[in-house]
Amino acid sequence: MLESIATLSGLIATIWITVGVYVAAKLYPNYDHSNQFCSELGATGSPTEKISPIINNYPLGIIFCLFGWALIQLNNSNLALTICGVLIIIHGIGTWVAGYFPMDKDPYTKSPTLSCKIHSWAGFVMLSSLLLAPVITAFSPESIYVPFWFRGASIITVFLATYYLVKMAKAARKQKLTGYYQRLSYWVKLLWLSIFSVILVQV
């Protein structure tokens, strides 16, 4: 039972965070998905500072770790899939840390607090781990868990996620559409995670 849930958790994570961000944003007056980062929902002094990590970060950390564990436990797994699983577990741990240490209410502050710095580093770990996972999957040895077409999809995922990440960095300088490009970059990787989850369920 636990293994079945763990295998599906890649898809569950995507659905959970999509609904969770939507619900938390509804509790944040005048929240702007296009121009505000997802982390601003849990920022220090925000209306949803306490509830956002409870809705999103803490349960999501568990769900990501479950999927990483599912990859590591696969029968006839290989080193690449094991590393991929570890990276997703690291992403889950980063999600917990980012929830426990909130960012500052002003995401563009020139003098961030220690909590904000820890949050930012956790975010960097999250970004890197979920970007490296499809790279490793794309170049992993032949396996029933990674069909040829999914290798191509993994490469496309990395390209799109990186493209939108660069767009987000440029948008941050103008302080406009940062939330829009952040969501595109992250949800592309979540879509990859969902597809991977569905593949594992069918094998």
What descriptors fit this protein?
203 residues; mainly alpha; 7 helices; 71% helix; 0% strand; globular
Secondary structure layout:
Elements: H1 2-26, H2 51-55, H3 57-72, H4 79-100, H5 114-138, H6 148-174, H7 178-202
Helix pairs in contact: 1-3, 1-7, 3-4, 4-5, 5-6, 6-7
Description:
The chain is mainly alpha-helical. It has one domain. 71% of the residues lie in helices and 0% in strands. The chain contains 7 helices and no strands. It has helices at 2-26, 51-55, 57-72, 79-100, 114-138, 148-174, 178-202. α4 (79-100) runs antiparallel to α5 (114-138), α5 (114-138) packs antiparallel against α6 (148-174) and α6 (148-174) packs antiparallel against α7. The protein is globular and about 50 Å long. The chain starts with a helix and ends with a helix. 41% of the residues are buried. The model has no long low-confidence stretch (mean pLDDT 94).
